[in-house]
Amino acid sequence: MSTIARRAFSARALVPPKIASPQAIGAPKDALRMSKIVDFYSKLPAGPAPKQQVPNNVFAAYKHKYFDGDNASGVPLLHLIGFVMAFGYTCDYFWHLQYHKSGVHA
Known about the structure:
With about 110 residues, the protein is mainly α. The protein contains four helices and no strands. The longest helix has 21 residues. The chain is rod-shaped and about 100 Å long.
């Protein structure tokens, strides 16, 4: 793996940089910079993220119910199979079976 790919996928990007060094903390310009950085990090939310609300869109609500988070399951596959069967029967009826209502094959 190349160096660029290792840097792109490393977890170091998630950790705040080492900004304060022991010899630079006492300097006035660095103290101002450190106070800005501390102020920025203190405003970040702490703790787990709040739960997302169920969206009003039908497709987004379906995705939220069956695909996202701990709710992932195989039920959408059963829904797809049922839809394909119903669609196929509807097509057969309108293209062929409606002509056999009286029992006579024409």
